[in-house]
Amino acid sequence: MSLRIALLGLLTAKGPASGYDLAKRFEHSLNHVWQAGHTQIYPELVKMAADGLVTVEAEGARGRKIYAITPDGSRLLTEWLIEHDPSATIRSETALQAFLLPLLDTEQAIAVVERIKGHFEARLAVLDCQPEGQFGNYALSLGLRQMRSGREWAEETLAALRREG
Amino acid sequence: MSLRIALLGLLTAKGPASGYDLAKRFEHSLNHVWQAGHTQIYPELVKMAADGLVTVEAEGARGRKIYAITPDGSRLLTEWLIEHDPSATIRSETALQAFLLPLLDTEQAIAVVERIKGHFEARLAVLDCQPEGQFGNYALSLGLRQMRSGREWAEETLAALRREG
DNA sequence: TTCGCCATGTAATTCGTTACATGATTTG
DNA sequence: CAAATCATGTAACGAATTACATGGCGAA
Q1: Which residues form the Transcription regulator PadR N-terminal domain (chains A, B) (predicted)?
Q2: A32 φ, ψ (degrees, to nearest 5)
Q3: Residue B88: inside a domain, yes or no?
Q4: How many domains does chain A have?
C-alpha cells in the first residue's frame, strides 16, 4: 500500500510523470522516507492503472507513458493520510548493531560506533543540502532531528565506551 | 541476513532457546529494533541449522527443539557486526505521512500530526518501561532519543500549523 | 561510430505478513 | 471437562531486491 501512496503523493505534489520520472523523484525527495527502484515502480503503476488510481495521460517516444492521478487516486490518498495508523514496524540495521554491541570487546565496539556515527553524519549532510521551503519540508525536519539524535547517541556512546575501556 | 544475525545475537546473549522462546525474546527485547514473528523464525532456524550456524542441542516434548549457536554462527555474527555497513534503507509510514502533510488543509494536518505525536508517545512509554542496565541498553538509549526527537518534531509542527492556520 | 546515459521493462529470488492447521498442557 | 494458552508448524500471498535484457538518443 505505502508504495502506492507514495506514488500518488508524488503525482499530486509535482504533477503527471512517467515511471522513470517517478523513480527520480523518489531518489531526490522521498529518499529519507521511503525507497523504491524502477523495478518496483513500473509494475506497480500498471496495477494502479488497472485499479483506476492513475491513468495514462500521454504516450511519448520509446514507450514512455505519462501517468496522472485520477479522482479515485486522490480519494484513496487523502483517506490514507487521514485514517491510516502508521505501522510501528521498524527494521534498522543500525539499531540492530547497537543492540548487539555488548557482544564485542570495547575496542571493537568503539570501531563499530565510529562507523555508525559516520553514517549518521553522512545522511545528515545529504539532508542539509536539501532545499528548505520545498514540498518535503515536514519530513525533512523530522529526518534532520532523527539523524542529529542518532549522531548524539553515537557521541555519547563513544564517550562512555572510552571511559570504561 | 539481518534476521539470522538477530537470532544469533539472541542465542549468544541469552543462551540456547527454542523457536518459540526466540519469538518471545524478539517481542520483549528486540521489538524496537527488528521484528519477526514465529512464522518467519521457525523456517529460518531450520535453514540456519542446515548451514551449520546453529545446532539442535536438545529435543523436548511436542517437537520442541532447543537451538544453540555454533562456532560458525559466532564467527558470522562477529564478522557482520564488525564489517557490515548498515544499509540506509528507511521505510517509515510515519515519515511518509509527514512528507505528504502539505496535501491536506491545516485542520486535517493538525489531526494527523496529533495522531503521529500519540504514536511517538506510546512507543516512548513502552521504552520507558524497559529495564535499564540490561543487554539491549545501547539500542534502548538510541530508541529513546529518536522517539523523543519525533515527539519534539510533532510538537513543533503542531505549533507551526496552529500559528499559520 | 562508439560510449555513456536515458528509459523501459521482465524474471528469479528473497524477505515478510496473514491465514490456516494441529495438538499438548495448564487452569478453573 | 472446557477454555485458555503454549508450542510448532505450513501455505499463500505480497513486497522488495538483484540480475538480466533491450533499445533510443546525444555528445565526443
Answers
A1: 7-78
A2: -90, 10
A3: no
A4: 2
Same domain, A76 and A104: no
Specify if B48 maps to a domain.
yes
User: Which residues of chain A does B5 touch, with a Cβ-Cβ cutoff of 8 Å?
Assistant: 96, 100
Residues B99 and B48 in one domain: no
* Contact in structure between B33 and A96 (CB atoms under 8 Å): yes
Together in a domain, B53 and B13: yes
Q: Residue B7: is it exposed, middle or buried by C-beta count within 10 angstroms (0-12/13-18/19+)? A: buried
Considering CB atoms only, which of B5, B135, B153 is closest to A145? B153
B62 Cβ contacts chain D strand, under 7 Å: yes
Tens of pLDDT along chain B (165 residues)? 999 999 999 999 999 999 999 999 999 999 999 999 999 999 999 999 999 999 999 988 777 999 999 999 999 999 999 999 999 899 999 999 999 999 999 999 999 999 999 999 999 999 999 888 889 999 999 999 999 999 999 999 999 999 987
Specify whether the CB–CB gap between B126 and B68 falls below 8 A. Answer: no
Based on the fold, state whether residues A101 and A79 are members of the same structural domain. Answer: no
- Tally of residues, chain B: 165
Disruptive mutation site among A93, A132, A137, A152 for chain B (greatest number of B CBs within 10 Å) = A93
